[in-house]
Amino acid sequence: MAQIAVRVVRKAQEALDIASFELARPDGAPLPAFSAGSHIDVQVPGGLTRQYSLCNDAGENHRYRIAVLRDAASRGGSAGMHDSLHEGDMLLISEPRNHFPLVHAKRSLLFAGGIGVTPLLCMAQRLAQLDADFALHYSTRSAERTAFRAEIAASRFADRVQFHHDDGPPSQKLNLPRVLGQPDAGTHLYVCGPSGFIDFVLKTAKEHGWPPEQIHLEYFGAAPQDTTGDRAFEVKLAGSGKTYAVAADQTVVQALQAQGIEILTSCEQGVCGTCITRVLDGECDHRDMYFTDEEKAKHDQFTPCCSRAKSAVLVLDL
C-alpha cells in the first residue's frame, strides 16, 4: 500500500489521556478521499505501525484528524504518539481503508464507548449532512474523559447525541433495552469501543432479537487471551512446500519472521485484518476480533498475528 508523508499541523488535548492529531501534506496538496468509518495506518515513533480512525468530516481533503487514547498497557503505540510526536513532526501513513462503512438505512443508532467515538463522530457528521435519522449514544467513564464534548455540543447534530458517564447519576446512564426497543428492519446499529462495551451492546441487541446483518461493529483492541494451554504446531507454506515450527510462546508471524518470511501486520491483535492469510488445509484456533463466527467456521483464512492451530499443521497460501 502506498505511503503518504504528512506533517502534524496541530496536536490538541481533547480529554484526559486523549490527544488529537491533525495531519496534512507539507505542500498543502489534497489527501486521498475517505468515507465515514475509515482508518489509516500510522508509523508511530519507535517503529511500530498502528491503526487510527479518521474523525474529521469525510468531505475534507486538506487534512486527516485522528485521536489517540494513552493506554496504560501500551506496547509503545499510544505512548509513542503522546510522548514523542509533536506539532511540526513528519509521519508516514497509509491511504484510508474502510472496514466499517455506513450502509443506507431508514435510521441509524450509533453506540460509542470511550475512544470508540472517533469513527462514529465521522458517521454522525455524514448522517447530519444527509439529514438522515440517527442518534449517537456516547458512553465514557466520566465527563473529563469525554473527547470532543464541546465540539459535539456546538455541532448541528447536538440534539441527536446523548452522553452517558459511569460516574454520573443513574438517570443519564445508558438504558440499552429502552434505546434498542424492538427490532426494526429499517434501523442499523453501529458499535465501536472496548471489547467489553461492544460485547454488552451485542449481547443485549441479540437478546432483543436484532439480526446480525443489522449490527455493524469495530473493535479497538482485543480481549486478553488465556495462553496457558497453548502448544506448538507447524505451518506449511504451499508455495515452497517447506514446513516451519511455531513454538507455544510464538505467533505464526514471529515464527515466519525468524525464517526471513515477512507477513504485513498492523495491530498485532487480530482487530484490523491487515495480516489475513488464506488457509488451504487444517483447523484454525481463531483468536481475532475481525471475522464473524460464520467466517471462522470455514477455517479458510485466519490472522497469523494472534490466531493459532487446533490441528497439528496448517497449510498456508504463502
Automatic annotation (TrEMBL):
Keyword Heme tagged: no
Protein's name in the database: Oxidoreductase
Keyword vocabulary terms for this entry: 2Fe-2S, Flavoprotein, FMN, Iron, Iron-sulfur, Metal-binding, Oxidoreductase
Pfam families assigned: DmmA-like_N (PF22290), Fer2 (PF00111)
Cofactor(s), names only, from the UniProt record: FMN
Segments forming domain FAD-binding FR-type: 1-103
Lineage: superkingdom: Bacteria
PANTHER family (alphabetical): CARNITINE MONOOXYGENASE REDUCTASE SUBUNIT, NADH OXIDOREDUCTASE HCR
InterPro entries linked to this entry: 2Fe-2S_ferredoxin-like_sf, 2Fe-2S_ferredoxin-type, 2Fe2S_fd_BS, Beta-grasp_dom_sf, DmmA-like_N, FAD-bd_FR_type, FNR_nucleotide-bd, MRET
2Fe-2S ferredoxin-type domain boundaries: 233-318
Organism: Caenimonas sedimenti
A molecular function (GO) term: metal ion binding
